[in-house]
Write a structure and sequence with these properties.
- It is a single chain.
- Helix content is 21%, strand content 34%.
- Helix 1 packs across helix 2.
- By secondary structure, it is of the alpha+beta class.
- Strands 1, 2, 3, 4, 5, 8, 9 and 10 form an 8-stranded mixed β-sheet that branches. A two-stranded antiparallel sheet has the order 6-7.
- The protein is built from 5 helices and 10 strands.
Amino acid sequence: MVAAQPGGMPIAQKVEFRFAKRGALRFASHHDLMRLWHRALRRAGLPIRLTRGFNPRPRVVFPTALELGVESEDEVVEIELAQWVPLARFRERLARELPEGIELAGARLLPPRRRGQVAVEATYRISAAPPGTLPVSAEAVERFLAAESVPYHAVRGRRAPNSAPRERDLDLRREVRELRLEPGALVVRLALSNAGSARPQEVVAALAGRPADEMRSLRVTKIGMRLAPAGG
């Protein structure tokens, strides 16, 4: 087995994997999923670069946090190696160690720069669960798209048990890049930013004129993500 390599070593290879996150793993936190990837890479015996410092960690980067409770057909992870491994062999060894619910899709080489990519847009398909009728009409979608501004006061969960809920005022019309009804589902493409972004359930709540708490039973699947170079 090849050990992980010191963080001071140059990047010999940087690979982007696209992958799906399905089933029970949609309820795993971002940190749990990160540990899952670290364990899979360690078991695969790949020469992973480590971060510097007193507590070195594998150089495994997600352009955006993996969302709790959301299935995904298009997530991205960037992995740095300190030794070159043929891409097909890299993918084969890694795929053997990933658990059910994580499925590798595309893989490509990235330039060996230290700054990674950032997620700038995400596309979601939202449907009723169990299957039923979404509380959204074609007329509501048309009104939303025709509006110059759609103010929305978002109230989100607490960061800690004894803290107050987080509140934020959004302009959903500025956040939504695409919105369309399909048979049994709503497709919404959202802008993403480090300052915080709208959530697909909030868009449905605004369209339906109902509280966001009532949207918890919706089935949300991320179906696409667009990346851009960091700082670009």
